[in-house]
Amino acid sequence: MNVALWIAAGTLALVALAGGVSKAFLPQAKLAAARGGEWTAEAAPGFVKGLGVLELLAAAGLVLPPLTGVAPVLVPVTAVCWVLLMIGAMITHVRHGSARLAFLNLAYLAVAVFVAWGRFAV
Fold it and tell me: CA triplet 113, 15, 50: central angle to 5 degrees?
């Protein structure tokens, strides 16, 4: 079970890292031109950068606490926050006609629920 939780948390961390780097460091025009990033065209630049920073923090919060032994309770807390972020992402993608991406976000949400449950309960 522990190995499955590590794989799930690591996968979410990679997803969060990729999304965070792109939102925090790529120009907003480039994000808006990318498939699935159309929503960024009408979002405030600070909002997009802020989401990127939150995703980078999520990537760190999913793997660093147990690796360092400092505050491992942050892993399930981060997973719950990721669930909330994915709910917002699904709403945003549905509003912009990207139901396919909303289903991908639903998959990430399910993995985050597994991590939160596994780290809180097990």
Answer: 95
Q: Please state, for a pLDDT cut of 70, what percent of the chain lies above it.
A: 100
- Cα pseudo-dihedral 91, 93, 97, 101, rounded to 10: -130
pTM as predicted? 0.92
- What do you get for the CA distance between the two ends of the chain, in Å? 9
- Which burial class, exposed, middle or buried, applies to 98 when counting CB atoms under 10 A from its CB (0-12, 13-18, 19+)? buried
Question: What is the spatial distance between Cα 11 and Cα 17, in angstroms, rounded to a whole number?
Answer: 10
For 48-63, how does the pLDDT look when each residue is reduced to its tens digit (9 = 90+)?
999 999 999 999 999 9
Average pLDDT over residues 17-40: 94
The size of the chain, in residues, is: 122
CA neighbor of 88 nearest in space, from 116, 56, 117, 55: 55
| Ordered DSSP codes for 2-64 | HHHHHHHHHHHHHHHHHHHHHHHHS-HHHHHHSTT-GGGGGS-HHHHHHHHHHHHHHHHHHHH
